[in-house]
Amino acid sequence: MFGFNFDKKTLYIIIGILVLISILSYGTEGLFDLVLSIPAVLLAITVHEFGHAFAAYKLGDDTPLIQGRLSLNPLDHVDPLGLAMLLFAHIGWGKPVQIDPRNYNRNISVEKADAIVSFAGPLMNFITAIVFALIYCAILKFAGLTFISSNVGTIVMLIVAYVVTMNVGLGVFNLIPLPPLDGSKIFIPILPRNAKTWFIEHEQTFYFIFLIIWITGIAGRLISPIISQITQWILNLAMKIFML
After folding, report:
1. What's the pLDDT tens digit per position in 203-220?
2. pTM of the model
3. Torsions phi, psi of 191, nearest 5?
């Protein structure tokens, strides 16, 4: 995703409240799960932002390369605020990938190029989810019951499962067609001219709508069934491949 223009003071207040609520509601098991989810969160943010950077670079914009964003190092992509939000609110973001549309090659329109760059982030999340679903099933098939039932095996399986669900979640969330999410830029090119103009003119209104459904948790409730279905579909596919 390209970034959120929230006031940092407001963000710190929101994050502080969420962290406090989360800590008070977590038991020992909940805190353990939170710690195990950290690698999944870092990976999901990293591949998402790398996807944006890689797509922009392939379309002719070398800005991500110059700024060191063509990297799979989490430190190059993680925003501390977005990381905290993803951990405690399950909706977050990475450090914005800066794009200069003037550098795009002219084989396609700037609008379509922006849509491709936007879609590349969620696409990387879905690809990562599929890869780790295959890893999960490979462990089930070849590692043996002794390893899977051990403490180390249990932790490994939980981390891999978190990677799958976190990547599906981040990918689906970013496809919501509201600014500032990737879905808004993917959605615009398919609109008729008049609808497109109207959407752009009312972008701030849609941004406000997004803030409401995000802060109130409506967004999470709306996309949770979709996330569950896609996650289950990916796991079923992986299980069929390994004949489990």
Report:
1. 888 888 888 887 787 888
2. 0.87
3. -80, 150
